[in-house]
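[User] Could I get a sequence and structure tokens?

[Assistant]
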Amino acid sequence: MKGLLLTLGAVALLSFLAAPTLGAGLLWDAGNGLGLVALGGLLHLVASSGPGINLRAHQVFGYAVLAIAATHAFWFLLLDPVAITYLQPGAPLYMWLGCAGFVLLIGMMIVGMPQYRLRLHRRYANFRYWHRLLAIATIAAALWHVLGSGLYFGTWYQALLLLATAGLVCVGDRAWLRSAAIGQKTTAVFVGVGLVLTLSFAALRNLP
């Protein structure tokens, strides 16, 4: 549980290192806050994927990350129909990478389901290897999406610290894996803390 709080907190705090009051309005910043929570959840999902994990809890947590990422994605389409232009030819590369990361996340969830996993990989070790590579590709696309926008991570040191955080999480040692272990209550904590962080993020960005 401690690992989850550290990961979510690190992503949120890094976004405030420069221009902490830069905002685009409560609703818009809330949508972006959801995206940062989804990124933090994705990083934690990878950090907790060591040997001996609770597969069912890990899967449920993954569904929660996917749900928050989907809410982030569709939030703007519902909030402002003009946002559809970011999904059309000529859209910035970072937006396409955000879409790619979302598709990869869906694929990772589907492939992780037992009924599909057993068809694709007879050996669990092979599944773990390819599943982790897919997760890292998803994180890379998500990081490009976040850093490419330049909105909340507009400085080189913020970008470097976020990349370092993601790298440390992906290659975490055993002590980190123990602190990141996902249990039955982890998903509920993630959703609750994520909601608080989203609301706090939007409020702090729009202080008078």
Remarks:
- The CA atoms of residues 53 and 202 lie 34 Å apart.
- The chain has one domain: 2-16+25-205.
